[in-house]
Design a protein that fits this description.
This protein is mostly helical. Helix content is 71%, strand content 0%. It is globular, with a radius of gyration of 15 Å.
Length: 136
């Protein structure tokens, strides 16, 4: 059921990213906080029996959540970057399990890959990059 819910949000984000504000209902913009909360919770639902996390034929719920975050970035831009960078830094500073590190970098990577202007990313992450670098 969770997978289907995320796929619905994925489809909505996909459609809204190709339309102007006047051509869509802006569902993602109106409900992004709740959706991001849902996606982050599901990012953390890594299926440990999935031995190869990078095998594209075996996509789990955490990876589908990251894909949805990536698609939402086209709509929300820096708003989503702010939320996810805070989540990632918080995860990396407080807990040191491999799962937490994986979730933090999966979420941050999904959002960052959608930015075309690296200067925009660097400007935004300027004060946040130090804590991230010390955690690598």
């Amino acid at each position: 059921m969770r997978r289907q819910a995320i796929e619905v949000w994925n489809a909505i984000a996909d459609q809204e990213s190709f339309r102007s504000d006047s051509e869509c209902f802006n569902i993602i913009k109106q409900s992004y906080q709740e959706v991001v909360e849902l996606l982050v919770k599901n990012l953390e639902a890594i299926e440990e029996e999935n031995e190869d996390l990078f095998d594209s034929s075996n996509v789990d719920i955490s990876q589908i959540s990251a894909i949805c975050l990536s698609k939402m970035t086209a709509i929300l831009n820096v708003v989503l970057l702010e939320a996810i960078s805070n989540y990632s830094i918080n995860k990396l500073q407080n807990i040191w399990t491999w799962k937490d590190k994986y979730c933090a970098f999966l979420a941050l990577g999904a959002v960052l890959k959608e930015f075309e202007d690296n200067n925009e990313i660097l400007k935004f992450l300027e004060d946040k990059i130090e804590p991230l670098m010390t955690m690598l």
